[in-house]
Design brief:
single chain; 8-stranded antiparallel beta sheet
């Protein structure tokens, strides 16, 4: 009978519910097109690193769908009761272990009355067995070190030149086989001439490619004092000091027989090194399996709910594994915070998410990390590079956070509604500042010129001031221009007032609403389309995930990801501010202005 799947809708798409062990065991039959993700990185997420390492069987730094399915099948094959996979236990119960070797190890770790092998106990047992295996291996090496602690250095010196020394002796044997090969086994005249035409160093590849020494017939030995290829002289000196002299005594040349004798003396140590255990010995493999089983029982269901589905993220039952903490900044707390290895590379792809992202460098006690936080509520007026905040990671540690980059996108419809007016206010303010600065500069210039003219007049003999004739035409033109300007302004105001007074009282609110819609409507509509198309996928894909669905973040859900500052329920609030700016009766001024304007219009239209 086929498994009956349950789905829940969140983020604008259907996600599978993984509640039971049966759901886990049947994941292999669920079409992977319905999986939210098909790969996730092992770094930069909040999940047990050791469990991820056990799941990552190819050690490529990513957990893929086949590896998750293989882990589920492995655990099911070693459990007599697969139902423990859904019970959110801290380890594996002894009664649920089907593998007798693993169960035997588990019994030896449990105290009287205990029935559950926790992950901590199983991991400690694995570490203990590994340490004992390593200690036993180290004890077995006492008889394979011909030079004691210096044996490792001798092996390293031999390994550094082994290929080149073997090459030299093969060339010598070939020259002994056929005398005509003697010259051919050495560098040709053309090669030496080519080397002579360039600047050489001891690490030049062309020089290192030449034979170790001059090749001759009859089992020629390698000279150790002179006649060596300069590119290999330093390494041959190390070989002589660390291996040849301690093992053979003082020698001036190395024959093929001596070379073989040195290698033979080091063979036991080399074989012992190759047998170094990387983990548990074969007879203790059950301990490793116990640790793996305990971790899988604890972690497979939570991982599946953050991999096959993003249940924790979209239901707010807890933080998703890609949410590494909370950023407090600008009176808000951003909960969608991801780790960022390289903010420039991350921003290039994450910008496609259409989410306002704030990149921060975080520092704490010499440690440094980079994060990207999504701001999905409020506005971006006070978000700017250089501002500081505090980041709390999932362990509760606080970090100093400084904004380094902002990917600007609409945050809310409220911000979009007021944006045209804010832009107009900023533009007017900037123009007024420029005008004031220009006037101030002009005044300062005139004052400086007046001071200079005064100084000149003091030094020069006094002359009667010239009488300037009154230009009637000039002033008449000025008054005419002022009259025309006032007339145009009055006419425009009269036209507006006429239109307003022509409306009925109930039409006035509609007129004002239409004006607001005309100004703010385009910005709100554009922001609405962008907010509806926000997508989590590019943010995670930039971190190495393979998100397989259109993981949308709509307006209501996005608002819940960024919390604004609010007073606690029942808090008392004093509205008196002793340092508030002195209020002026602007309302009275406005009423008087409206009355005067109305009377003037009425008088004009009378």
């Amino acid at each position: 009978m086929s498994h009956t799947w349950k789905f829940f809708r969140a983020g604008g798409f259907d996600q599978v519910r993984i509640d039971t062990a049966a759901d886990l065991l049947n994941l292999k039959d669920l079409d992977q097109k319905l999986w939210v993700a098909l790969s996730c990185p092992t770094k930069g997420i909040e999940f047990d690193a050791r469990s991820l390492a056990l799941l990552d069987t190819d050690n490529d730094g990513h957990i893929r769908a086949p590896e998750l399915l293989a882990a589920i099948a492995w655990a099911a094959a070693r459990l007599s009761d697969s139902g423990v996979l859904e019970q959110k236990l801290a380890g594996v119960p002894l009664g649920a272990i089907a593998d007798e070797a693993v169960a035997t190890v588990a019994r030896g770790l449990l105290k009287d009355g205990e029935t559950l092998v926790s992950v901590d106990v199983a991991s400690a047992a694995e570490v203990d067995y590994s340490a004992r295996a390593l200690a036993a291996w180290e004890a077995s090496g006492a008889d394979v070190r011909p030079l004691g602690d210096a044996t490792e250095a001798a092996c390293a010196a031999v390994a550094a030149v082994k290929e080149k020394v073997d090459d030299f002796f093969v060339r010598c044997r070939l020259a002994a086989f056929d005398g005509r090969a003697s010259e051919a086994m050495n560098a040709s005249d053309d090669v030496l001439k080519a080397l002579g035409a360039v600047t050489l160093t001891t690490d030049a590849e062309a020089l290192a490619a030449l034979p170790l020494a001059k090749v001759g017939a009859g089992g020629t030995a390698i000279p150790l004092t002179s006649g060596l290829n300069p590119a290999w002289a330093a390494r041959m000196t190390t070989l002589r000091d660390d291996a040849l002299t301690p093992l053979l005594g003082t020698i001036d040349s190395l024959s093929e027989a001596d070379w073989q004798a040195v290698q033979d003396k080091l063979v036991p140590y080399t074989a012992w090194q190759a047998a170094k255990p990387e983990g548990l010995p074969a007879e203790a493999e059950a301990v490793r399996d116990l640790e793996r089983l305990a971790r899988y029982v604890r972690d497979l269901l939570p991982l599946a709910n953050n991999f096959v589905a993003f249940r924790d993220f979209y239901t707010h039952q807890g933080k998703a594994i890609f949410q590494i903490g909370t950023l407090y900044l600008d009176g808000r707390s951003a909960e969608l915070v991801v780790a960022v290895p390289d903010d420039a590379k991350h921003a290039a792809l994450a910008a496609l998410s259409r989410i306002c992202l704030v990149y921060c460098d975080c520092a704490r006690n010499g440690e440094k990390i980079s994060i990207a936080a999504a701001f999905t509520s409020g506005d971006s007026d006070q978000l700017m590079v250089g501002r500081n905040g505090v980041f709390y990671d999932r362990q509760g540690r606080d970090w100093n956070a400084t904004i380094t980059k902002i990917v600007d996108h609409p945050i809310s419809l409220r911000q979009a509604f007021w944006s045209p007016y804010k832009k107009l206010a900023r533009m007017v303010g900037e123009q007024l500042q420029k005008l004031a600065a220009s006037k101030a500069t002009g005044v300062e210039t005139k004052l400086a010129e007046a001071a200079v003219d005064t100084a000149k007049k003091v030094d020069a003999p006094a002359k009667p001031p010239a009488q300037q004739a009154f230009d009637v035409g000039k002033f008449a033109g000025i008054f005419a221009a002022i009259g025309l300007a006032l007339g145009a302004i009055g006419g425009a105001l009269a036209s507006v007032a006429t239109g307003l007074f022509a409306l009925k009282w109930w039409q006035l609110p509609l007129a004002f609403a239409g004006l607001l819609l005309l100004i703010s409507g385009p910005a709100v509509i554009l922001a609405w389309f962008k907010l509806r198309s926000r997508n989590l996928g590019p943010i995670l894909d930039a971190n190495g995930w393979a998100v397989n669905a259109r993981a949308r973040i709509n307006i209501p859900f996005g608002t819940s990801l960024t919390q604004l500052a609010q007073l606690p329920a029942g808090a008392e609030r004093a509205l008196t501010d002793p340092y508030a700016e002195k209020e002026r009766p602007w309302a009275l001024y406005a009423v008087i202005a409206v009355i005067i304007f109305t009377v003037a219009v009425w008088w004009t239209l009378r």
